[in-house]
Design brief:
The chain is α/β, with parallel strands linked by helices. It has helices spanning 2-11, 16-29, 39-57, 139-146, 189-197, 213-218, 253-263, 285-295, 316-331, and strands at 74-77, 89-96, 107-111, 150-155, 175-176, 179-183, 202-206, 222-223, 246-250, 301-305, 335-339. It folds into 3 domains: 2-57, no CATH class; 74-292, Amidase signature (AS) enzymes; 301-339. Residues 1-6 have low confidence and may be disordered.
Length: 343
């Protein structure tokens, strides 16, 4: 849209006759004619558009202003190795949210792709030798704090947030909290390790091709890549705008639902959010989880993806545990069926 505005603005810098020549040429290219008696109307419409274009182009770029007085940042530091046993912290910080809200008192870590004003950002890399310190908060940062969350730090991610394992940062591999020397998954590896170990209650990861779901699976968590655009990506380092997503990671479905409820909804900035609900229209996800406990899973249809068990790399122990869980769900009354989604 901005390119169109700039083009129209440039077009109308020339004389009216030159503009009319362009109108005629464009109309001819599109196989229709502009009657001579309508040419003045076209000029008037284009002139009005140019006035609007100049007004837009004269405005400074919008830069969200962080609420530093309401939410001051204290104790910003890189933790010592002994305080970073899984190498999962990128930076520590203390930011207290409001009292009350769906996240009241919950400690939260953020994948180090999510901007927090005045807190350095590594992006899983040491390529930027002078460092990068954001000047704005991502929308989800403010929402977490508004809902009572306590932000306690930035969680390490894989190098430039790419990679399904947890070995690509220049600061050493992120350890699985359940098995030293094993992968925590990626690229939201730090979130997986910190939440899985119990150091924090919940976190916001990022996911383009599995980067929430893989570490959640590795570290025994509930990890959700939300529907595209449900959670605003404003203030988060992008990998690919058509698949960028951030979402909750937690040890329970209820905590994941609480966090999703806190951060979902349009912010009127992120253009990925076409059709997203307003904040006031966000579903009560946490209550939905609580309500589901009353009815159980009797009759719930669950699909078991055949392709998920077809890999030659599938560990027999993982296969057995998954099959046992599936069998338990069926015993509880769920309707379990194999499904196939071939690639």
């Amino acid at each position: 849209m901005l390119l169109v505005i700039k083009s129209l603005h440039g077009l109308l810098q020339s004389s009216s006759m030159a503009v009319l020549d362009d109108v005629r040429t464009t109309a001819d290219h599109l196989s229709f004619a502009v009657p001579a008696e309508h040419e003045a109307d076209y000029l008037a419409l284009l002139s009005a558009t140019d006035i609007a274009a100049q007004a837009v182009l004269s405005q400074p770029d919008y830069q969200p202003v962080p609420e530093l007085s309401a939410y001051p940042r204290t104790d910003v530091h890189r933790p010592d190795p002994e305080a970073n046993r899984y190498r999962a912290w990128a930076w520590k910080v203390s930011i207290d949210g409001k009292r009350g809200g769906v996240l009241d008192g919950k400690t939260v870590c953020l994948k180090d792709t999510i901007c927090v004003a005045d807190v350095p950002q590594l992006f899983g890399s040491n390529a930027i030798s002078r460092g990068f310190r954001p000047i704005s908060d991502a929308t989800v940062v403010t929402r977490v704090l508004d809902q009572g969350g306590l932000i306690v730090g930035k969680a390490m991610c894989e190098n430039f947030s790419h990679g399904p394992c947890s070995h690509s940062t220049p600061f050493g591999p992120v350890e699985n909290p359940y098995a030293a020397g094993f992968s925590a998954g990626g690229s939201s590896s730090g979130c997986g390790a910190l939440i899985g170990s119990g150091e924090v209650d919940m976190g916001i990861g990022g996911d383009q091709g599995g980067s929430i779901r893989i570490p959640a699976a590795h570290c025994g968590l509930v990890g959700l890549k939300p529907s595209f655009g449900l959670v605003p990506y404003t203030g988060v380092l992008s990998s690919e705008p058509t698949v960028d997503a951030i979402g909750p990671m937690a040890r329970t479905a209820l905590d994941a639902a609480r966090l999703l409820e806190a951060i979902a909804g349009s912010d009127a900035i992120d253009d990925r959010q076409l059709g997203a609900p307003s904040r006031s229209e966000v579903m009560p996800y946490a209550q939905s989880v609580l309500d589901s406990r009353k009815v159980g899973i009797q009759g719930l249809r669950i699909g078991v993806l055949k392709e998920g068990f077809a890999s030659s790399h599938l560990h027999s122990g993982v296969n057995q545990r998954c099959r046992a869980a599936i069998h338990h769900l069926a015993e509880m009354g769920a309707i379990v069926e194999d499904v196939s989604v071939p690639l």
